[in-house]
Amino acid sequence: MNEEDYEAIFKMFDKIRKMGNIEKTDFMKIIQSISRNISVYDLSIATAVLREEGRYIQENYREKYLEVYVRYFIMRLRDINEDGNNYANDYVDIDGLHESLDILKHQMKVEKNEHPNDKFPLIYALISLYTTYILEQPIHPVGTPFPGNLHVTYENGIFYCPVKKNNVDNPKAVCKFCIAEQTEID
Fold first, then answer.
1. DSSP state of 171
2. Which of 122, 141, 160, 170 is least buried, going by the fewest C-beta atoms within 10 A?
3. Which residues of 36-61 are buried (b: 16+ CB within 10 A; e: fewer)?
C-alpha cells in the first residue's frame, strides 16, 4: 500500500468514529467497500508474509498453524466480500469499535514501514474488524493450535484462547479487542 492508501484508510477510520451508533449492515458495507480493493495478488503477498513469519513458530506445530491461518485468512476475506446477510437492527459495540480503530490505526502506521509494498496490514485490520464486530467471533478461529497442544475453543457459548493474556499488551496483536476469553490453564 502506498501513502495515499494509508491516508484513505485512516480517513475512513476517522469517519467511522464520527458516525455514532452504527448498524452492522452499514459497517458491513464499509468493510466490503474497502475489501474489494484487495486482489488475488494482494492475497498471495499476504500469504507469503504469513509463511515468512511462520518460520519462527515451533516446528512441531508450524505447518498445522500455518494451514489454519492461511486458509482462514484467505477464506475470511472471501466471506467478507460474499456476506449478504442483513444485519439491520443489530448494532456494533461502538465503544469497543473506537478502541479497536485506535489500535489498528497505530498498528498500521508501524506496519507500513515493515510491509511497505503490500496490503497485509489492511487485510489483517479488515478481518479483525469483521470477525469481532460483525460475526462476534474470536479473531483466531476455533481449533487454531498454540504451543503446549492448546487450541482456541468454544464451550458453553464462550470462546476461549490459551494465549490471550500473554498477548493483550503486545502492540502488534489484536488480542486486546478479541472477544475470546483467556483459557483457564492448569
1. T
2. 170
3. eebeeebbebbbebbeeeeeebeeeb
Contact 83, 134 (CB under 8 A): yes
Instruction: Kindly report, residue by residue over 160-179, the tens digit of the pLDDT.
Output: 999 999 998 888 889 999 99
| 151 found inside a domain | no
In a domain? residue 181 = no
Is residue 140 within 8 Å of residue 152, measured between CB atoms? Answer: yes
pTM value surpassing 0.85: yes
Residue 122 structural domain: 3-140
Q: Are 107 and 171 in contact (CB under 8 A)?
A: yes
* Distance, CA of 51 to CA of 62 (rounded, Å): 9
Which residue type does 114 have?
E
Q: How many domains does the chain fold into?
A: 1
Rounded CA separation 27/42 (Å): 23
> How many CB atoms sit inside 10 A of residue 157's CB?
5
Enumerate the β-bridge partners of residue 181: 160
Query: Does the residue 40 lie in any domain?
Result: yes
Percent over 70 (pLDDT), the chain: 99
Does the residue 97 lie in any domain?
yes
Query: Among 31, 38, 30, 32, which residue's Cα sits nearest to residue 5?
Result: 38
